[in-house]
Amino acid sequence: QVQLVESGGGLVQAGGSLRLSCAASGRTFSINVMGWFRQAPGKEREFVAAATWRWNGGITDYADSVKGRFTISRDNAKNMVYLQMNSLKPEDTAVYYCAARGSTAPRFAAVASYDYWGQGTQVTVSS
Fold first, then answer.
1. What spatial distance separates the first Cα and last Cα of the chain, rounded to whole Å?
2. Exposed, middle or buried by CB within 10 Å (0-12, 13-18, 19+), for 91?
3. Do residues 94 and 39 touch, judged by C-beta distance below 8 A?
4. CA-to-CA dists, residue 93 to 2, 12, 30, 66, 116, angstroms
5. How far apart are CA 109 and CA 127, in angstroms?
6. Dihedral through CA 88, CA 49, CA 27, CA 45, nearest 10?
7. Integer Cα distance of 28 and 11 in angstroms
8. How many other CB atoms sit within 10 Å of the CB of residue 2?
9. pLDDT in 10s for each residue of the chain, 127 residues
């Protein structure tokens, strides 16, 4: 099992920044990809960003809606993954979830491909 705990959410004005953190523990050696997803009220959970963990040289992927504004990074030594969010917009308001998987399949955006999920952290962007 892998346990994931997110932190760093909060309330920020449009144009502001936040950094989310995710601490992984347990069988972290089984992780190949770490991702961030979000879910707004009444909407389905959607992909935000992902990065390979100790496999395939640190590939990253982003949803089109956050490219150029969000950056995913990882610290394998600390078993941490981060999401730096800049130029935040009201439409970024959602609960943000950290996720991990063992699969090395190329499609990082598939929600169902992730094995482990955190509890989520609320991000609210005011206009």
1. 40
2. exposed
3. yes
4. 27, 10, 31, 12, 23
5. 28
6. 80
7. 31
8. 21
9. 999 999 999 999 999 999 999 999 999 999 999 999 999 999 999 999 999 987 667 789 999 999 999 999 999 899 999 999 999 999 999 999 999 999 988 889 999 999 999 999 999 999 9
| Short-list 20, 38, 23, CA closest to 79 | 23
Question: Under 8 Å CB-to-CB from 58, ≥6 apart: which residues?
Answer: 51, 52, 74
Return the structure tokens found at 45.
Answer: 């959970």
Looking at residue 95, its pLDDT comes to 98
The CA distance from 21 to 24, in Å, is 10
* Tokens linked to 91: 């439409």
